[in-house]
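Structure request: Serine carboxypeptidase, mine drainage metagenome.
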Amino acid sequence: MTAFLQEVRDFANGPYVSALAKGDTISPAELDAVATKMSAYTGLSVDFIKRANLRVDLQRFRKELLRDQRRTVGRYDSRFTAIDVDAAGEAPEYDASDVQVSGPFTAALHDYLEQDLGYTTDLAYFPSGPGINQAWDWKHKPPGSSRAAQVADTAQDLSMAMRQNPKLKLYSLNGLYDMATPFFGTEYDINHMQLDPTLKGNVRFAYYPSGHMVYLNPQALTQMKADVAKFYDDATK
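Returned structure:
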């Protein structure tokens, strides 16, 4: 898989981004070539990709990939599939990789509170608070900017922190099947922090055969713990 993922990275950073930059001036031949390559990598049809003008939204991808099987793809973990009421809809109606773990999360918390801590309550527990994301103020003023941006991009804050403290280390842990925070998006953000060349060695990445919550995979959790322990040891030497 490592070689395949690098091939896809090269395509995304090369022919794909070049095609997007050309906009409506892209030639029919190049459009066909890029759409065909995208189809081979994603499993979506060439026709669908071309109708989306090469710009496939994540929600659409999750709905479209297995549409002929009346299934949708998970967001936190794309190995999970779900069944929607409306198979012809625009986007998934829920995230299978969320609902299949939220129940055990809730049960485990209640068991811990009641059995270990002796705490009981009639309050409802929500693994993800309802309405919080919709009400969140995402505006953020990055370093060096005179005004707040509408998107909370904090990469430049981290970049400044690393410049101010050259001993600060960054370790990015990624689940390969995570569509909530896809690893390539993380790579892009970190690789555009405009770090001084002397600081680039302070950044490292790790990848696991898991979704967003790496710890749900026992084997990946064991490896992640070992990786993080080594990172702490190396960073404090």
